[in-house]
Amino acid sequence: MADSLTAVIAQKIRQDFIDGRRLPIGARLPSVRDLTRMYGVSISTIANALSLLEREGVVQKRHGSGCYVTDPADRATDGVSRPKLLGCVMRNAAAESVVRITAGIQHVAHKHGFHLLTASTDDDYDGEREQLSRMRDAGCQAIVLLPAIRTQGQLLKDYLTTEFREVPIVLVDIAYAEQQRSSVIFDNYRAGYAITEHLVGQGHRRIAFLDLNLPDGGLMHRSTRDRYLGYRDALAAAGLPYIPEDHWTLFHRFPSQWNSEEITSELLPFLTGWRRQPEDRPTAVIALEDLTAMHMLSLARELHIAVPDQLTVVGFDNLSVAQTFSPSFTTTAADFARAGEIATEMALREMLNPSVPHEVYVLPVPILHRVSMLQRAETGAMQPALS
User: Fold this and answer.
1) How many alpha carbons fall within 13 Å on the CB side of residue 341?
2) Predicted model pTM
3) Which domain holds residue 305?
4) Torsion angle in degrees (nearest 10) through CA of 123, 126, 132, 135
């Protein structure tokens, strides 16, 4: 009798809310308590009826959220719903910032009942294209992409503008308007400006900027390019001249894959040149990110350069490996996990409504002033300060 009643109620719910698109795809059904009042049956009967509809692939349960109408295209002919797949393609899956972004993507994917397929491109443009093709062929309904760093030529003819248009692809962290996709980026211009302003406020009048490029130029690394513009504008606002010799460029494409020897060989010429210039030289360096800052500080000490007294170094990204590094240095606190969450929500929104216009979401990047062990002992401060 109970089974028969469950089937009857399941059919009533289907007729009243689902068949004929009475509720749109992705819409939430009334709560269990509301359905109980509507049909005059017990909570357990409603729960069993919803479970039956879920087995049929008509609705999807989301823990703590309710039941949602599924897309008929995702319902297999045998009545069993196909798993909902979300793709996640990252330029370097081992990097800490990427791990944080992926955690944000995973959180939202799980909340909406999606299985997450992940892949790494090792910062290779053609490899990225191949991974996106695999994701599409595997049935991913939307994809979040942290793009490989492009050359100028690749960006001008980016395959994202013409290929995979049937799949919502949202870019995160590194993106350009030329790619014609929705994106979540960080306000790295403001970060570069603010960190330069901070150094000027400490009394620095010559500040070197560590950049990244190819030997023949044309590397489109959005983060460093935006920070560089902020650096230039902050110098101008402070009435300080821009000195081309203080623009220190590392000519290597994939710094995330460097080993310690490669980073040392790239940084050594700058520091040895700095030592040979006892007067009128930079007293601070804005590094690519925390790892590069740590290597520069370690190498400076090996060369008997007093840090931070003779040379102050700042980084970006607040990597965990740098949080106990001595001497402590200023960095930024970008919320990578939040970027992953927002990008995933945007991708799922475009999946449900392909006609929505592309949008760019910009996340702030606060400056983080770390506190050294000595400073903690002297001042009693326990936490770094954000600004």
Assistant:
1) 9
2) 0.78
3) 188-334+368-386
4) -90
